[in-house]
Amino acid sequence: MSQSCFGNESNNVMEEENVAPSFGDTNIQAVQPSPESGSLSMGNDTFQSVRRKSRTKPLTVDVYTVQCNCCYKWRLIPSLQKYEEIREQIIENPFMCKSACEWEPGMSCDVPETISQDGTRIWALDKPKIPRPPPKWTRLVQIREEGCSQFSDVYYITPYGQTLRSSVEIQKYLENHPKFVLEGVTPSQFSFQMPTPLEENYVRKRPAQSSKRKR
DNA sequence: ACGCTCGGCCG
DNA sequence: CGGCCGAGCGT
């Protein structure tokens, strides 16, 4: 998955609704220096996007993008592992175009952007400082369909293939598997923070909470 | 995959 | 004090 993301997906970006069933799901994640939102704007945020359409299948992230802290262009990241590394350190080590020379020789702020926030993908703001999962563990983000009560679900897959879906489950699992604790795995290496969709109305609004019960 | 609720927090 | 939203979990 790591390499194919680059060529395949950037070519498919233009196609809108008609997607080959085999490649139904496409997402993009990106790290961005949040130039506009002056609120927190420590320096960097993370973005994630998913191609629209796609049947009732799980929307799984398989393409990753980071925005240059200098020129604000988006740059594709070749693998989830690299993306997670960048996201973890994005505050201390802001991403620059030339950082991408590591996997794409000649990259610089002068190279035109190859992907943008057009209408073909679902973009979402990811949280910075999400820790990399421990070795052999996988952090899985699944984007829900439009109109759901939440934007996404975050899961961790253990080295044995078990799925954990909350920090409580992580805690219990580590208690029951001291092996991992001995290896140095700690709860602080996990975050269930989900990305936030850019599109304002992607997530269904909650029916105004019935204000209190009267008695 | 999706809904729902509880409780903390913030205006 | 009420509305919002994330965490957690049931289905």
From TrEMBL:
**Domain CW-type: start-end pairs:** 58-117
Q: InterPro entries, alphabetically? A: DNA-bd_dom_sf (IPR016177), Methyl_CpG_DNA-bd (IPR001739), Znf_CW (IPR011124)
Record CDD domains: MeCP2_MBD (cd01396)
Q: Which GO-annotated molecular functions does the record name?
A: DNA binding; zinc ion binding
Instruction: Name the major location.
Output: nucleus
Q: Where is the MBD domain?
A: 123-197
Give Gene Ontology CC terms: nucleus
UniProt superkingdom: Eukaryota
| Subcellular location field | Nucleus
Q: Which UniProt keywords apply?
A: DNA-binding, Metal-binding, Nucleus, Transcription, Transcription regulation, Zinc, Zinc-finger
Q: Which PANTHER family match?
A: METHYL-CPG BINDING DOMAIN PROTEIN-LIKE, ISOFORM C, METHYL-CPG BINDING PROTEIN, MBD
Q: Which named protein is this? A: Methyl-CPG-binding domain protein 02
Q: Which organism is it from?
A: Thlaspi arvense (Field penny-cress)
